[in-house]
Amino acid sequence: MDTPPQPHTTGPAPAPGPRGAAFLLAQIGAHAAARFAERVGQLGLVPADVGLLRMIATQPGRSQRALAEDLGVVPSRVVTLIDHLEGKGLVERRRSAADRRNHELHLTAEGTRTLGAVSRAAAAHEDALLAALDPEQRSHLSGLLARIATEQGLTPGVHPGYRNRAPA
Amino acid sequence: MDTPPQPHTTGPAPAPGPRGAAFLLAQIGAHAAARFAERVGQLGLVPADVGLLRMIATQPGRSQRALAEDLGVVPSRVVTLIDHLEGKGLVERRRSAADRRNHELHLTAEGTRTLGAVSRAAAAHEDALLAALDPEQRSHLSGLLARIATEQGLTPGVHPGYRNRAPA
DNA sequence: TATTGTTATACTCTATAACTATA
DNA sequence: TATAGTTATAGAGTATAACAATA
To answer: Searching chain B, which residue's CA lies closest to the CA of residue A8?
Structure first.
């Protein structure tokens, strides 16, 4: 019994798919990442740049190898990322005196200023993304998300978007 | 007064960066998407395939052009995606009798079975992702996320990962 | 010989544009 | 002439592997 070709009276697509929290997390997460990318894009940066700037600010003098390790990316990719930041005058490579194979990474003064602008953009982003929630709800949400992140073994402050290598 | 090169007594990287809910959403969202990709990968699918299968199941007979419109991607990309699904025997292209330029898209019997397996994988994924929360907390989280999704104008069931075209 | 950083190469993904067949 | 789908081409992004400098 094959159904004859009935014309579809349904107009626009109804809710097609999943309704669970996992899907909402992935959907909102991708949306949040895209909106954040727009904001930092106005500062001439891509999201990956932001993570690197923060890591270098937190631990100045790290080697590129160490950064690659922490981010879970291949060292050659760090070369490209740092090239970009150095080209914009935000980061400096300094040959290590102790081991001249290493490059110690440091923010320039402009790098520090840019990182401040990024922080302001991030605050505005947060506020826009959570516009639907009042302060109490926001705090509740943060608590639930923090539990998930911890239980899932996510490294605080490191976005998984870096690692395109096998996760384990 | 320039600071002399002090050795860093800090060992492993401390929490470098952001702590807000927006970052947690992006971080957990990317993590969730990656874990889901692993699960459907065991069924021979990529996440984009899953969205297409669901859309075709919901509205059989749609044209590729209509799908491209809804997903926010260029029509040529739909060709590639459907090629993959048709090659795996999950989807059928049928020339429309009314307008022979159109391809009506339908799931095969195996496509329907595969979609069932995807649903089971999605349920397992949801459970694993939210392992840190009890049922009441999960429900509360879903409510908060649904509010955000609605306020941000996200289309229910459509993951933003499809559209690489300008968002507006 | 091992390690840091760099460069060269290849591969994947996707959008743009040209093309065909239908209308 | 316009539209649905396809194919061809080109560009961006990134991993792999070869390489140079230093240890």
So the answer is: B59
